[in-house]
Amino acid sequence: MLSGGVVVPVVSAGAAADCGFLDRCPEPDRLPGWLTEQDIAVYAEAPAATGFTGGLNRYRNLHRNRDLTAPLNRARIQVSALYLAGDRDFVVQGADHARLDAELRQWAPQLRRTMILPDCGHRTQQERPAEVTAALADFASSLVAG
Fold it and tell me: What mean pLDDT do residues 125-140 have?
């Protein structure tokens, strides 16, 4: 989802059942400041030159990945962790942040911080590079400090 100062329509949960995923994501009126037409051209040119097989293989391989990682099902993250997401990310959009934090802590007992960036979509590091860098630096410092 594109954001960063651009008004982005909310994903339509009520879209027709036979529509595709992208049909639920309307085109923004303009690109956000962190994404240029040149960026779009690069994203379009790479698959035109080499194909899109690599990108699709991740989804073609979902069942195999699930099978290979079955021993990790319900495993807890046993190292220090930071959870960072944008409030407009499809993954957490509309979630109760306090409940999300509590549930994350069940699976990552050493979670140091849950940080939800306002007005930010899925590409947090592109949309908010300074905030993401600061959060990662603070997290790394907390590991050194103990």
Answer: 96
